[in-house]
Design brief:
Length: about 260
């Protein structure tokens, strides 16, 4: 299911510092304010690492969110488009892969905009369409450290909470140090989920450290296997595999170009 989001012009809203948002259960039980987690990516193609992370996040955050939106990027700001499959093809694969998972949604809003797919603009669009929804943006710890390189990256806590998943051996302490380096005013507070640290950030957003399992599946290796005619069983959802087969000429034409790294 794709959320129906409108334009990107909206004022930011967030829970007051230190105050837990109203919640809804993972099964969709209504609450005064429904949180929603967001997992963005190129999904070139969507693989089991993406889907397991979305499922694990939905379960771990069940007290705060009603599910997870997978948001395919249309024009990645920090990547070349060389080797990137067309947006519609990538979105269709995501949609087909989550058909039997009603707490996951594919949101195509970035394909409706011109220019780079900035997270700032995407979150503004969410606030425009769903102003009472608390947003939880999922990202790996290396990307959390790179937020100063993002468009208005250090202002994002005014629009969302972060769910920081450790990668590359990084620990809870690393995330605390990163948060305090990026926002000197950041302070540790009682966690809302799990027992990992939680940092209150300027703008009202929180940074939750959530040590979710992260399958180390490489999209670039998956593309190489596909191009070599090798099997990609158990790396790629079957539904996505069938769409790739149906679109083989398009896939070959794009993936045989110089490939993006992920």
């Amino acid at each position: 299911m794709t959320a129906n989001l409108g334009s990107q012009e909206a004022a930011a809203s967030s829970a007051p510092d230190g105050e837990a948002p109203d919640v809804a259960a993972l099964d969709g039980t209504p609450g005064p304010r429904k949180g929603r987690a967001i997992l963005g990516g190129s999904f070139n193609p969507p693989h089991v690492g993406h889907l397991r992370l979305a499922i694990e996040a939905a379960e771990a955050l069940a007290a705060l969110v009603s599910g997870v939106d997978l948001v395919p990027c249309a024009v990645p700001p920090h990547k070349t488009m060389t080797g990137m499959l067309p947006f519609d093809l990538r979105a269709r694969m995501v949609e087909a892969s989550i058909t039997d998972l009603p707490f996951l949604r594919c949101n195509r809003l970035e394909g409706q905009r011109q220019g780079p797919s900035y997270t700032w603009d995407t979150l503004l669009a969410y606030h425009k369409a769903e102003p009472q929804t608390e947003l939880y943006f999922i990202l790996g710890s290396p990307d959390f450290a790179l937020l100063p390189t993002w468009h208005r990256g250090l202002e994002l806590p005014g629009l969302c909470h972060f769910v920081v998943v450790p990668r590359d051996g990084q620990t809870a302490r690393d995330v605390i140090v990163t948060a305090q380096r990026l926002w000197p005013e950041a302070r540790e507070r009682a966690p809302l989920v799990g027992d990992g640290p939680c940092m209150a950030l300027p703008g009202g957003g929180l940074a939750h450290f959530l040590p979710l399992p992260w399958l180390d599946v490489s999209a670039s290796r998956l593309r190489s296997l596909w191009l070599a005619g090798r099997r990609v069983d158990f790396l790629l959802p079957r539904a996505a595999f069938e769409i790739l087969k149906q679109s083989e000429k398009t896939v070959q034409a794009h993936w045989r170009q110089t490939e993006p790294t992920c």
